[in-house]
């Protein structure tokens, strides 16, 4: 009931659910021109959308031997929660590719891949551990000396354990 009510309250998913329930006729494409990009995407995927126990799902075919899945069509109010669960709990803060893989097996909404990328890029925990690429070192310059033994260099290191063979 909770998921069904959340989808019904969503401005894009509410009408799509009505189309699938048959309470409202699906509009033709010329009437969709003034609608949001998300609603246009759902209109185009109408045949792959399905109601199960009053909740809207999308039939997704992976291909390549992977089994087909029914993705929960996520209302905007639950998208951040699903992103948190897929990124922190399921994937363990493992960047956007693995987070996207976790989410793709379970949920769908319009423009979900860019939402995953943006969420992972702005994750505070991930950013505190990964600070970007290290700064580049400057080019090396040769020492120019006039005669042998004019400049000496010594690398000092600590005590080293003896190897097994002495």
Structure, described:
A hairpin with a 2-residue loop joins strand 1 and strand 2. A 4-stranded mixed β-sheet has the order 1-2-3-4. It contains 8 helices and 4 strands, in the order ααααβββααβαα. The protein is elongated and about 95 Å long.
Kindly state the number of beta strands: 4
The largest sheet has its strands arranged as 1-2-3-4
Strand content: 5-15%
Biggest beta-sheet profile: 4 strands, mixed
**Number of helices, counting only DSSP H or I runs of 4 residues or more:** 8
Give the averaged pLDDT, no decimals: 87
Structure classification:
alpha+beta
Share of helix, binned: 40-55%
Provide key terms for this protein.
166 residues, alpha+beta, four-stranded mixed beta sheet, 4 strands, elongated
SSE layout and pairing:
Layout: H1 2-9, H2 13-21, H3 29-32, H4 37-44, E1 49-52, E2 55-60, E3 69-73, H5 76-90, H6 95-104, E4 107-108, H7 112-121, H8 124-129
Parallel strand pairs: 3-4
Antiparallel strand pairs: 1-2, 2-3
Helix pairs in contact: 5-6, 6-7
Q: Brief description of this entry?
A:
The protein has 166 residues and is α+β, with helices and mostly antiparallel strands.
């Amino acid at each position: 009931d909770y998921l069904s009510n959340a989808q019904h309250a969503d401005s894009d998913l509410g009408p799509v659910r009505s189309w699938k329930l048959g309470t409202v006729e699906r509009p033709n494409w010329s009437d969709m021109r003034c609608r949001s990009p998300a609603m246009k995407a759902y209109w185009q995927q109408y045949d792959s959308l399905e109601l199960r126990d009053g909740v809207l799902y999308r039939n997704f075919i992976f291909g390549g031997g992977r089994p087909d899945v029914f993705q929960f069509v996520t209302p905007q109010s639950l998208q951040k929660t699903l992103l948190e669960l897929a990124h922190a709990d399921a994937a363990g803060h493992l960047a956007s590719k693995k987070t996207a893989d976790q989410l793709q097996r379970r949920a769908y909404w319009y423009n979900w891949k860019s939402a995953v990328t943006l969420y992972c890029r702005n994750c505070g925990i991930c950013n505190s551990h990964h600070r970007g690429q290290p700064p580049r070192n400057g080019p090396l310059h040769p020492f120019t000396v006039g005669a042998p033994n004019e400049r000496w260099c010594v690398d000092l290191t600590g005590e080293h354990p003896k190897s097994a063979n002495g």
